[in-house]
Amino acid sequence: MSTNQASARDLGLRFEGHLPTGPLNALTDVAGVKLGHVTLQGDGLATGVTAIIPAEGNLFRSKLRGAVDVINGFGKSAGLMQLAELGTIETPILLTNTLNVGTCTEALVRRALAENDDIGRTTGTVNALVCECNDGSISDIRALGVTQDHAAEALKAAAPGAFAQGAVGAGTGMTAFGFKAGIGSASRLLEIGEERFTLGALVLANFGPAGQLMLPDGRRPHPKDLAEREQGSVIVILGTDLPMADRQLQRVAKRAGAGLARLGAFYGHGSGDLTVMFTTADRVEHDPATPFAPQRRLSDDLIDLAFRAAAEATQEAVLNALCHAPGTRGHSRYYPSLADWLKENQQ
User: Fold this and answer.
1) Confidence (pTM)
2) Which residues contact 269 (CB under 8 A, 6 or more apart)?
3) For residue 28, which of 12, 51, 44 has the smallest C-alpha distance?
4) What domains are there in the chain, each with its CATH number?
5) Residue 2 pLDDT > 70, yes or no?
6) Is the pLDDT of residue 225 over 70?
7) Exposure winner among 37, 77, 328, 346, fewest CB in 10 A?
8) 337 among known catalytic residues
């Protein structure tokens, strides 16, 4: 399965009035973020793992401030409850298919144990963070094809810079709005005061019934197969270097839903839609040197710019997931490429 399609912008979609993008227009525009994939194809499998390492160093010892916003909770992710309660992220984030959440969770736990001799002995346990979508429309999800070795390989492959999008890693078997979909990314630059910050989005897109997709120019691409119930999911990962408290991060995470709504999403009963957000600023030490730690945070009066960036980057990331993914045969139907539709319907 090829992933050599083009981005939404390369295919002529315009994002007029939007904030400027980072140099890569990707989550990895945020300094320190690394991303890696393992893609599994053959023997009925079209699945994989995508690993996001949100910052350098030992994440358990020096945690990131984070938040989660659950738009519709039909999902089986791991680690969200503690993230919502404590507002910190202490492992990399793995994306995979629904039935391999447990496998990837154990892989993250074993990684943290290897790095930290005190976990479960003289300090607490570790909160592994794994999110999922169901790729069963294309892959044999019952085969449980993802192993701990695959998760470890994706983590080892994680690197800064550009990365493959579309039908790759966790996105290999995903679909959206009746088209082939998968992994997509985008970023926005924010000028606040005299400083520049970056907000990046990565999506695992597997949601939306055929005929509901709305392009930025108002067109509604429609695959040939018509009736389709909304029962997919979408995972949005937002990262930034903008200093924010976990309450502010949760508020910004909520605005990813605005980006999804611009595309035509209505968060159906069977859809698992959520956003995980982190900031690389002002990390939280597991073993603090003093009882109190200073924290720099954005003024709430200026947070609208981050809201806007989250909505814009999420919208474009989903379109990039669709545009990078080639047409693919599923179990019961063919999922065409949005890139092909755009080429055939050039304005």
Assistant:
1) 0.97
2) 72, 74, 230, 231
3) 51
4) 27-285+295-340 (3.60.70.12)
5) no
6) no
7) 346
8) no
Confidence at residue 224, expressed as pLDDT on a 0 to 100 scale: 67
Q: What is the Cα–Cα distance from 131 to 96, expressed in whole angstroms?
A: 7
Rounded Cα distance, 176 and 40, in Å? 20
> Is-catalytic flag, 225?
no
Query: Where do we find the tokens 């990078």?
Result: 324
250 CB neighbour count, 10 Å cutoff: 19
Catalytic residue, chosen from 135, 233, 241, 337, is 233
Given the residues 137, 139, 271, 337, the one annotated as active site: 271
Q: Per-residue confidence at 256, pLDDT binned at 50, 70, 90?
A: very high
Residue 268 confidence (pLDDT): 86
Instruction: For residues 305-332, give the mean pLDDT.
Output: 97
Query: What is the 3 state secondary structure string of the chain?
Result: CCCCCCCCCCCCCCCCCCCCCCCCCCHHHCCCCEEEEEEEEECCEEEEEEEEECCCCCCCCEEEEEEEEEEEECCCCECHHHHHHHCEECCCEEEEEHHHHHHHHHHHHHHHHHHCCCECCCECCCCCEEEEECCCCCCCHHHCCCCHHHHHHHHHHCECCCCCCECCHHHCCCEECCEECCEEEEEEEEEECCEEEEEEEEEEEECCCCCCCCCCCCCCCCCCCCCCCCCCEEEEEEEECCCCCHHHHHHHHHCHHHHHHHCCCCCCCCCEEEEEEEEEEEEEECCCCCCCCCCCCCCHHHCHHHHHHHHHHHHHHHHHHHHHCCCEECCCCEECCHHHHHHHCCC
Residue 206 has pLDDT above 90, yes or no: yes
CA angle 72/309/279 to nearest 5° reads 80
How is the beta sheet containing 93-97 ordered, strand by strand?
34-42, 45-53, 93-97, 129-133
Half-sphere exposure of 159 (CA within 13 A, CB side): 8
